Amino acid sequence: MTSVEDLYLGVIKDGITRHPRSLQKRIGPSEIGRPCDRWILHKLNGDGEPDRGPAWKPAIGTAVHDQLERWFAAANRGGGEVDRTEWITEWEVNVGTIGGQPITGHSDLFHVPTGTVIDHKIIGPKQLAHYRLHGPSEQYRTQAHLYAKGFTDDGGWGPARAVAIAFLPRDGELHQAYFWEEQYDPHRAANALGRANRLWNLLHVVGIDAALKASPLCDDQWCTWCRAEKREQARAAGQSLFGDDFPDIAKRPAAAVSGRDCDTCGEPLHPAVIRDGFTTHPTCRPMKTPAPLGRPVPASQQLAPVTNLFDRS
After folding, report:
1. Is the pTM value of this prediction over 0.85?
2. CATH number of 12-225: 3.30.2390.10, 3.90.320.10, 1.10.260.40, 3.50.50.60?
3. What angle do CA 159, 161, 163 make, to 5 degrees?
């Protein structure tokens, strides 16, 4: 019998997986700036991301975005008149083309009087501290500049003059928010689209398999494709026996994983023992004999007992 807890969580998981953001396979402005070529190639090929379970944190961000949209739409005091509108929310823009296909996306916010594109990022405390210290990632910056290009090309709300990213704390208070901005740079947007088109051309000339072979795995912890492939490679190499990422390796016989036997007892060695440079089990190694004590100090050279100054007896 299904419990109420299962039903409750099932509704949430179903809502996350059915959200348009989760179902989208075509590449969007938020992904064009990713540093990993393999990520771009997979998206251009229409591949679905490796399963990582319900994306709860992104779902929180989506919910906050929905509320922010309502607040900023209500902040417009123009009474619906276009020439008096201050904030443009969730506006669809065409940022350019990849392989001849238009790439569209929804910009979080556009401040008409200053021509500023603003993107909301709902993040945890570690990310907030990182971005406050180092500024936004290239992916985030590229996304903002692509939206600015879209507003400028459209021209309906005037040209974009600046881009901004509002880093809002997911686990803190509003006064901890970090607002970053810079002047709009059309060259950054053009370079990002040029790179995506070069990868698109490579994909359609040699195919996805050859294109992936020509692109090294990245070290981005958020790249689901490279992480999944690294897991497979680690499984094949018998690494990380105790990690949660590779639970099936821990079930293999040690001989099948390490391929090396103990020099003393002949039983298979654990890979961790081999990595430490040993050729025998710890229990098979002879105990070290204690070093002989030095010669006793003659009585004449021994220190006099220390007088207890607090003893009044």
Report:
1. no
2. 3.90.320.10
3. 115
Residues 6+ apart with CB under 8 A from 118: 108, 109, 110, 111, 163, 164, 165, 166
* Local confidence pLDDT in tens for the 313 residues of the chain: 578 888 888 899 888 888 665 455 689 999 999 999 999 999 999 888 777 677 788 889 999 999 999 999 999 876 556 677 899 999 999 999 999 999 999 999 999 999 999 999 999 999 999 999 999 999 999 999 999 999 999 888 989 999 999 999 998 899 999 999 999 999 999 999 999 999 999 999 999 999 999 989 888 877 888 888 888 877 777 765 344 443 333 333 433 334 577 777 666 766 655 666 677 765 565 544 444 444 444 444 444 454 554 555 4
Q: Where in the chain is the domain with CATH 3.90.320.10?
A: 12-225
